[in-house]
Amino acid sequence: MYPAQSQLKASYKYSLVYKTWYIKRKALQALEPVLPLSIVLSLLGGAASAILTFGKRFEELDKAAEERIVLVDQRVDGLEIRLAKEYIQKQDLAHMLERLDSRMDRMDYKLDQILIGYNKSAPHGQLNGPY
């Protein structure tokens, strides 16, 4: 073989190998996704960690709000108990004042009878009047 022929064969062989490599490469590139899998997985991992972090934060805020509601509920219950202990209903007060007023009227009548004098015709130890 002549030297020029061997170079030609070598260059032809090289060009044939290059062409097959190039075709295989293009075929693989056509099959590869637009974004590499590592980028997609890292983005998904970051999104998952962000969701978990926000979920934890919202859970803490929810827990704090729940504790505050329990505290306010306990304070309202305490106030209701104190009101029930220290204060009375309006109807009960009206009834007590009515009874007190009737007793004061009886005492006033008795004092008037003492100051004016006894009824001499009444039996001994009894006062004049409806009581």
Overview of the structural elements:
- With 131 residues, this protein is an all-alpha fold.
- Among the domains are: 42-87; 89-131.
- The chain has 3 helices and no strands.
- It has helices at 3-31, 37-86, 90-116.
- It starts with a helix and ends in a 15-residue tail after the last helix.
- The model has no long low-confidence stretch (mean pLDDT 76).
Any chance you could write out the topology, listing elements then pairs?
Layout: H1 3-31, H2 37-86, H3 90-116
Would you kindly provide a brief summary of this structure?
This protein has three helices and no strands.
List keywords for this structure.
mainly alpha; 131 residues; single chain; 81% helix
Largest sheet: none
Number of strands: 0
Q: How many helices?
A: 3
Mean pLDDT: 76
Name the shape in a single word. rod-shaped
Name the quaternary structure. single chain
Helix-strand makeup class = mainly alpha
Proportion of residues in extended strands: under 5%
Cα-based radius of gyration, to the nearest Å: 53 Å
Q: Level of helix content?
A: over 70%
- SSE order, one letter for each helix or strand: HHH
What separation lies between the terminal Cα atoms?
156 Å
Poorly predicted runs: none
